[in-house]
Design goal:
By secondary structure, this protein is of the alpha/beta class. The protein has helices spanning 6-15, 19-31, 53-66, 87-95, 103-110, 113-120, 128-134, 142-154, 181-192, 210-228, 272-277, 295-325, 333-346, 360-371, 416-423; strands at residues 38-41, 43-44, 47-49, 72-77, 170-174, 177-180, 194-195, 198-204, 231-237, 245-246, 264-265, 283-287, 375-382, 390-395, 401-406, 427-428, 432-436, 457-463, 466-472, 485-490. The N and C termini lie far apart (67 Å).
Amino acid sequence: MTNFSDRDLKQLFSKGISEDKVLDQIRIFEEGIPFIKLNGPAVAGDGIRKFTKAQKTKLVKVYDSNREHHKLLKFVPASGAASRMFKSLFAFLESFDPEKEDLASYSNRTGDKDIEQFFKDLKSFPFYQSVQERIKKTKGNKDKKFLAFVHEMLDSDKLQFDFYPKGLLPFHNYKGHISTAFEEHLKEGALYGRSNNIARLHFTVSEQHETMFHDHYQEIKERLTRNTNTEYIVNFSQQKPATDTLAVTEQNTPFRENDGSLLFRPGGHGALIENLNDQDADIIFIKNIDNVVVDHHAEEIAFNKEVLAGLLIQIQQKVFEYARMLQTEGLLAEQLTEIHDFLYRELNVRFADTYHSFSIAEQIEILKDKINRPIRICGMVKNQGDPGGGPFWIVDPQGHISLQIIESAQIDKSDPEQSDIFDNSTHFNPVDIICGVRNYRGEKYNLLNFVDHRQGFISEKTKDGKALKALELPGLWNGAMAYWNSIFVEVPLITFNPVKSVNDLLKSQHQPEG
């Protein structure tokens, strides 16, 4: 049993973390987090819906005819730093010496084709002109100028792009101005997230970058408002200190800093369920900060978002009708069957084999529990070999089957059957989610009640040369939404355009026409 000192308890109080919560985290370390058991991949026709062009057009009409009656919000996780985008460039700075080799020799020696492409298409990057202007007096051959270009981008006394949040880096070079991913999200918000000429957006950012986001918004606000004919309401938040998790030693005792204080670490993007829960909206669009496109693709992106939102509204209308029906007296067996079949067919709810053996009263309570949950409509793209999560049917230790988004780290890859199911999945999660977060009375759900706290991750780290174990909370679209009602829909690949490497900015989706 772990005993905390008065100093420890003061530290917990200052972070807003209860002693019981920390003890629960220690128990998770002691017991370990079991692997998720896959029952099968979600595929088209079994867990993933596909729509014809005519069906999509109809759903967009549903959304357009109802959007003014809903408070809409776009929620963008945007706290990630850009450092990983420049991994190849940092390696280049560390090991390239223009006095000893040329660029071609470096590429052959290291096998780094990314560097080769970076310099081959240098003029196509949105930051090319600004960096080039700063190094125009650099003398030497082409390779020395290339080296100076990268130093100007990344050195701490120069532009230091790796310090920036990804959302504030130059992403797209339009005639007249350079656009950031942050600005592209605002423009998108005016296309599909606007209601009554107001677009509301919320960005979760890190503490060190929040002022930068505020300042950038003030710089572009007037131009955006004028060009989109939209009034913007933009807010920011940070991960809450109370979502940090305790680090432990290899013996599962609290890891302590050199001064004796407890070591806490950020809980990962799953902590953002708290930020999401704080939002006041009826329908919430979720999309990652780096997943944007240039203007000539924007209408197609908006159309596909509106398809998902139209489906949500259509489904919610029926959900609310049935939820009200379940509050009335004297329901007939036929009505219960109708609600049961709707949940099974439209919301992918799976019932225990014993369901039909229960009394009418017991069945009503089960149906109430199943239907009164937040709803998420998740776009899924066909698998292109990208790392990350995907849609699966899973079975929990009690034998309950549900539809979930699962990451590879949650799977026991040493189990041939589980590995085979994961490797043969057909679709990938691009984080393209529309959330319905109110019940039939218009009351907002407490989203924290629908988290599966056993779907976190334990990782091994070091601090000051000492080994430790860290706990990451259930991912925002994984365990944090485990008990939502989920609908997965196939969406085209154009909806997934992340910038993980700086060279991704060279793709056509990030290159303006002309």
